[in-house]
Write a structure and sequence with these properties.
The protein is mainly beta. It contains 3 helices and 12 strands, in the order E-E-H-E-E-E-E-E-E-H-E-E-E-E-H. It is globular. The termini are far apart.
């Protein structure tokens, strides 16, 4: 049975799953009945300075793979109509560059301001981590608050501390859009 995290909870993946190397990070959501939105998952692989070591460590729909080969975006889902995960990230923790100490998972709504879209139009939004070797869900974080005023969300992050990977459920809403994250972390 998967560990269920609440906002702000952290979980030591390396201690709990010492053999874990390859993970799938799945993010999913359901639209409310009238909403049609294009959500995008992006990954910021950050160094100890809190910045990208190079632009290529920003993995998103136009840069599907990190330069170290450790993180791969499986592609943009423009409708979110599918069952299960709407967008997925594959990560091989053993291949992450020593320049990277944090991997941040962000979801933004395409043209949110112009279309007046926000996270309050979504239901059952989540992020989960699955062991690729056995397809077992290790942990899950379900957004359980009202995020009506937010157009983008920091869902969670992986942090390397003393050789252990920790996952933290963030659930931090913003109104900065994808460019705001790029400005912050580039």
């Amino acid at each position: 049975m998967a560990i269920s995290l609440k906002k702000g909870n952290s979980f030591n993946l390396s201690k709990s799953e010492p053999a874990l190397k390859k993970i799938l990070v799945g993010l999913g959501w359901e639209m409310s009945s009238q909403a049609k939105m294009d959500l995008d998952v992006s990954v910021f692989m950050l160094g100890s300075s809190g910045k990208l070591p190079a632009d290529e460590f920003f993995v998103f729909y136009n840069n599907l793979k990190s330069p170290d080969g450790s993180v791969q975006h499986t592609g943009d889902n423009r409708t979110g109509d599918d069952e299960g995960d709407d967008e997925m990230i594959l990560a091989n923790l053993a291949l992450v560059s020593p320049q990277v100490s944090e991997i941040l998972f962000v979801v933004t709504i395409h043209e949110a301001q112009a279309r007046r879209h926000h996270f309050g139009l979504l239901q059952n939004a989540y992020i989960r981590i699955v062991d690729v070797e056995n397809n077992r869900e290790i942990l899950r974080y379900d957004l359980d608050q009202d995020f009506t005023q937010y157009t983008d969300m920091e869902f969670g992050k992986l942090t390397l501390q003393n050789q252990d990977w920790h996952f933290t459920a963030l659930g931090i809403g913003n109104q900065n859009g994808l460019q705001g994250f790029v400005d912050k972390y580039a």
